[in-house]
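Subject: sequence -> structure tokens, single chain

Hey, anyone have a minute? Need the predicted structure for the following. Not urgent.
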Amino acid sequence: MKTIKALSLWQPYAHAMVIRAKTYETRSWETRYRGVVAIHAAKRPAILDVGPFSEQEQQSLEEVFGATMQRRGHNMIFPDLPTGCIVGVGYMTSIDLARYVDPVISVQERALGDYSEGRFAWHFSRMVALATPLPCKGRQGLWNTPVCPVLHAAIESIKTPEERSMRDASLPLPPTGYAGQKYRVVQEQLGGRLVVWGWTNEEDGGQLARDAKSHPLTVDVLVEQEERYSRKAGGV
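Reply:
Had a minute. Here:
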């Protein structure tokens, strides 16, 4: 089974990453790996102690998270953010010493990471959020997770045209019954970010596409990419 690398982040950092409010993830370690990474929201209460943040950083955080955040004393609480699940997919392009990155990042970016001496800044150049998070148990470090159809769609959505032309034939097909049929990767442009909804095909009348269009958030662009597989029906 095809797998991709995954990285667990505490909330609200995972949410900030997939909405592109945060493009660097800071760690105490580095890796030689570069490429697609699933962003996993760890199963931990989403609470931030505002003590370490400056007033300017606190204001920046409030602007980023808005209605998803509640203030309780010295804590910022995020009761509506999902945990224990994969919330998006990104492309990790480089890793630098955090002290080299710190002078050039925004107040917002600095508030969402730890750029102290000896740490590393992992840069993500592309990111897409999943409309429906995938429940999944996380792990420490970089770990492997199976590529289900929804993750496959997310990966396809962040590929460049050149990368799509070099399709990996081992990537999984759409769910049982879709094989050999035409399908579409349905995604939306919501608030400046792509949101992947999943699969649809000619047989279901595009119901998923209609559901996406009727979503209460404003739909700026609905992208439908068409592919065709020739594998016999009955397998995943």
